[in-house]
Amino acid sequence: MSGRLGHTRPRALVFAVISRLFLVKRFTLTKVLSLGIAICVVFLLFLSYSVPFFKFSVPYVAPHPLEIKCHVNQVSHNTLKQMVTNHLSSASLRIVNKVLVLVETQYSRLGQDIVAILEANRMKYKVEPSGKALPYLTHNDKGKYAVIVFENIDAYVNMDKWNRQLLDKYCKEYNVGMIIFAQSKSDSILSAQVQDFPVFTHANIAVKNFEINPDSDILRVTRSGEIWTGNLPGEDWTVFVTNHSTYKPLAWAKMQTMEDFIEDVEEARHSVILQDLGSYDGIRRILFGNGFKLWLHRMLFLDSLSYLSHGMMSISLERYILIDIDDIFVGRKGIRMKPDDVKALVSAQERIQQHVEGFRFNLGFSGKYYRSGTYEENRGDEVLLGELNRMKHIYLINSLPLQYLLLYNSVPIVY
Question: What global pTM score does this model have?
Answer without folding.
Answer: 0.67
